[in-house]
Predict the 3D structure of the following.
Amino acid sequence: MKILGATRFDQCVITQALIHLCNQQSYVGQELRKLYQTWADSSDTTVYNPWREPHQFRIYVPHPDQEYDGLTLAEGLTKGYNLEVQRIDRTTAVPYKIPSGGHLVVVLKQKGLQQSFQLAATGVFVRPLAALMLDLIDPIDGTSQPIAVHHPIIRSYPSDWQQKLRQFLDGAIEAEALPQVVGYVDQGMNGDYRPPAWHEVYQSKGSLFGF
């Protein structure tokens, strides 16, 4: 198994996942809302903005030739069915100190066709900045390589967005001090936004990607 991001397919799966994470109306966004509504009902707690609470998101990177019953791979990736979310609580193992407004991301990559998944990266999703910071894990020697990924649709990123991302992760600035660019690519905030389908992401020019 090659390191995550070594192929265009991997890059597009991660990019598509970031698109879903930024959109409250996506499958994973709605699952987060359901998750928090269930927790709020059971704990008699009012939830105003569940995105301010820490979550763990799992991104599954399938083999490009993997087939599923009743659903094509492209359909599943377009809908974001390869993403899962759970609340972070005291029992959750978190490898990072995640600032308020950040979320843990775990990426699992399929080892081969019809095979199981293996840990390929961990990182942090920073919603206001619509960005991911990932540590890619080499499957051979276990070393890691950091990489930042930004949303491919947003054209108004500040030139120092990676510096802002690092400052946030280091605790030098809070989420409120980040450029709030996610609103452009969130259907809950921008009714004119239409998220791209898998084939649109895969066929886009390489310059669109944050890798």
User: Anything to note?
Assistant: The longest strand covers residues 117-126. Helices lie at 8-22, 27-43, 73-79, 161-169, 198-203.
